[in-house]
Structure formats: structure tokens, C-alpha cells
Backbone:
């Protein structure tokens, strides 16, 4: 009866980072930034750790952080959020996602997801008893296939999970896409879980527009953010959910049994970060776009066609451009072993790898210039 101890696989990020370490490779696989941690935020964490307290904070998050999140959403999105009843702090966006899915999905509910998708979505949707309905966006533009999306909704749809800016495609959905989706959510009396962890990583003068700001969406969307992304501190695992009280309540029920709380000193530091001049957050995208351009240019120069990255800290390269004759997995293993550079095979972000595109690799460009340059030099020598 116990032939299979667990049906969870191993996440691609662990697989590739372990391989990178084994070969001493520059790790452009797992997405984490280098050299961008804001000193004021780090200092605030150290001070708060020194000062304490170090026992369980309030389950919904410390008041200072909930107020800072509400102020952030007012400033950037014009949202009027009640910090008392509409904000919940979580241990990373990963926990926020799990809270939303475990809190809202009842066995048999259908969940609409857009593929390629971030790797934690499907295992949690399934464990929550949800039935995934996948809609694919296709390269090079990752255009939302409206008819397929409309057909994925039914009277059994509980929610749609939207990730914009989108990992791994680096797509940023535009206002028309959002309006189309909002209309479907309303028509089917459904909800939307909005993974917006890359909200401050939208490039080329565009701005992030949360689905929750569209007409009719205020009571139907749960907006998820991540301090790990916003302040380039991915180990901290401080995330949050903003939603109307009636939507947040069942999600908080899941939170109480998953982590219950998040380290107090880190919550204080994130509150300080969000309390800075908003221009500081705008600067992140400018800085990151320069890194994007640097790596994209280097890869193109070697012969890789590179897809446009409108947001996130990822770009996608076409491995056929250098005449590589094998799958994306072969390629990522090969460049790790032979060149000392690691990327993530794009097909890992699909439910069924057999029908996924097998000729793309995802590179993280959120690194120091010298790491990006060295990666390009190494790849030039070995592909
Ligand atoms: N969603 C997406 C799309 C991500 O790329 C990530 C990865 N960082 C997360 C959620 C998880 O964020 P956190 O580290 O705050 O748990
Ligand atoms: N979000 C990061 C990525 O897409 C990694 C997160 C993780 O390691 N689980 O690479």
C-alpha cells in the first residue's frame, strides 16, 4: 500500500543549483539576485534582531508591516486597503500561494492556470484537490489565447492563478489581457489569485498593473507580493496577501496551520524598506534592465536568439541558435559541466514535458556585471 512514499518530484531549482555547485558553475539557473540588497533594510533587520522581541508575533503580521503594505498599495496602485482586515503577512510568496490554494479550493474545484508556470503551482493545486485547467501561451510573444482561455473556464471554475510579470516567460500582461480575464472571472463567479512577486521588475517604462485594480475585481482578487523579490533578499521569505476581508479570511485559516507567523525582525525590516522613498523601488527595474541588456547582448553575440524580457529577472535563449542538437535538459547539463555556467531547462515549467518546447533555456540576469560577463566568456568558449 505504501509503494510510493511521496509523489512530489524534486524541484528543478534544487536539481540545477546542486549541479552548479558540484561543477563550480556560475549559477544563472535558480532565480536570485546578487549585489542588490539595500543597506538600510539590512541594517533595520540587524537592529530589530538585536532589540527583539523574539516570540510569536500576531498571526496576520505585525501592524507596522501591514500598514506599510497598505501604504505601498495606495501609492503604487491607488488601492484603498485596510491594514487591519485586508493584509496578511506570510513566510514568502510561496506560503502565500499555498495559503490561497489550500484556503480556497475544495476537492473537485477547477483551477485555470497559464502555462509555462512556476513550479510550485501544480503540486499545491493538486494536493488541495483542485483540477488544473491549463492554457498555454506561446513564444515568441506569449500572447494570451483568448478563445482557449474562455474555454478553460466553466461553471466549476473556482479560481484562476495569474502570474504577471510571468516566470519563466518574462511576459507582462497588458491592460486588454487583464480586462479580458476580469470579464471571465466575473462571468463565471470565480476568483483570481495574482502572483505579483515581480511587481517592481517591469522594464522599459511600463508599469505593473494589478488585476485587483480593474472594475469588479476588488472583491475577487488576492494580490500576492514578496519582499524577497522587492528587496533582493530571497532567503528572508517575507511575503504578503492583500484581499477583501471575506476572501482573506479563509486564506488566513490555511495560514494558521501552515506557518502561523513570520520572523518579527524581518517583518520590521521589510516595513522599513517599504517606508523608504518610493523612487527607491522604481530604481530596481532600471538597474535590472541594464543587467538584462548586458546578458542579452552577450548571448546574442555568441549566436543565441534571445526572447524579449518585459519583466522578472529572467530571459529565454533559443539553444538551436548555436547548433545545439539535444534537449533543453541536455543543454543545461552540458553548459554546467563543460562551460561552468548553469541555466534552467524551460520545459521544466510545463505539466507535460513531452509536449513542451525543448529548445529554450532560462537565464537569470540579476547578477553582478562581472558574473554576467564571465558567464558569456565561458559560454563563448564552450558552445
Ligand atoms: N512566485 C513566483 C512566480 C516566483 O518566481 C517565486 C520565486 N521566487 C515565488 C513565487 C516565491 O517567492 P518567495 O521567495 O517570496 O516565496
Ligand atoms: N523563483 C526562483 C526561480 O524561479 C527560485 C525559487 C526557488 O528556488 N524555489 O528561479
Residues:
Amino acid at each position: 500500500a505504501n509503494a510510493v512514499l511521496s509523489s512530489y518530484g524534486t524541484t528543478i531549482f534544487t536539481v540545477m543549483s546542486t549541479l552548479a555547485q558540484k561543477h563550480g558553475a556560475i549559477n544563472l539557473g535558480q532565480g536570485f539576485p546578487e549585489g542588490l540588497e539595500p543597506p538600510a533594510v539590512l541594517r533595520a533587520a540587524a537592529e530589530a534582531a538585536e532589540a527583539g522581541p523574539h516570540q510569536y508575533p500576531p498571526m496576520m503580521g505585525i501592524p507596522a508591516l501591514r500598514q506599510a503594505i497598505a501604504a505601498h498599495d495606495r501609492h503604487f496602485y491607488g488601492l484603498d486597503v485596510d491594514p487591519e482586515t485586508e493584509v496578511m503577512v506570510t513566510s514568502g510568496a510561496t506560503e502565500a500561494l499555498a495559503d490561497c490554494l489550500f484556503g480556497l479550493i475544495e476537492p473537485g474545484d477547477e483551477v485555470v492556470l497559464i502555462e509555462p508556470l512556476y513550479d510550485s503551482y501544480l503540486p499545491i493545486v493538486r494536493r488541495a484537490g483542485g483540477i488544473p485547467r491549463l492554457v498555454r501561451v506561446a513564444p515568441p510573444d506569449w500572447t494570451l489565447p483568448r478563445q482557449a482561455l474562455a474555454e478553460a473556464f466553466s461553471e466549476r471554475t473556482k479560481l484562476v492563478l495569474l502570474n504577471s510579470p510571468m516566470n519563466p516567460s518574462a511576459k507582462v500582461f497588458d491592460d486588454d489581457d487583464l480586462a479580458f480575464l476580469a470579464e471571465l472571472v466575473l462571468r463565471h463567479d470565480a476568483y483570481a489569485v495574482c502572483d505579483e512577486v515581480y511587481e517592481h521588475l517591469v522594464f522599459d517604462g511600463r508599469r505593473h498593473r494589478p488585476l485587483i485594480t480593474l472594475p469588479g475585481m476588488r472583491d475577487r482578487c488576492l494580490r500576492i507580493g514578496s519582499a524577497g523579490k522587492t528587496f533582493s533578499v530571497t532567503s528572508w521569505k517575507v511575503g504578503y496577501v492583500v484581499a477583501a476581508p471575506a476572501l482573506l479570511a479563509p486564506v488566513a485559516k490555511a495560514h494558521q496551520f501552515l506557518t502561523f507567523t513570520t520572523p518579527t525582525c524581518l517583518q520590521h525590516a521589510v516595513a522599513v524598506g517599504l517606508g523608504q522613498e518610493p523612487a527607491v523601488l522604481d530604481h530596481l527595474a532600471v538597474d535590472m534592465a541594464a543587467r538584462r541588456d548586458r546578458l542579452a547582448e552577450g548571448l546574442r553575440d555568441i549566436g543565441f536568439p534571445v526572447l524579449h524580457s518585459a519583466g522578472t529577472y529572467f530571459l529565454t535563449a533559443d539553444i538551436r541558435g548555436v547548433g545545439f542538437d539535444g534537449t533543453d535538459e541536455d543543454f543545461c547539463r552540458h553548459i554546467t559541466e563543460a562551460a561552468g555556467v548553469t541555466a534552467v531547462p524551460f520545459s521544466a515549467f510545463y505539466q507535460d514535458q513531452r509536449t513542451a518546447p525543448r529548445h529554450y533555456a532560462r537565464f537569470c540576469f540579476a547578477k553582478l556585471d562581472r558574473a554576467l560577463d564571465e558567464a558569456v566568456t565561458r559560454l563563448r568558449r564552450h558552445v
Summary: The first strand starts at residue 26 and ends at 27. The longest helix spans residues 278-302. The chain has 13 helices and twelve strands. The two ends are 48 Å apart (CA to CA).
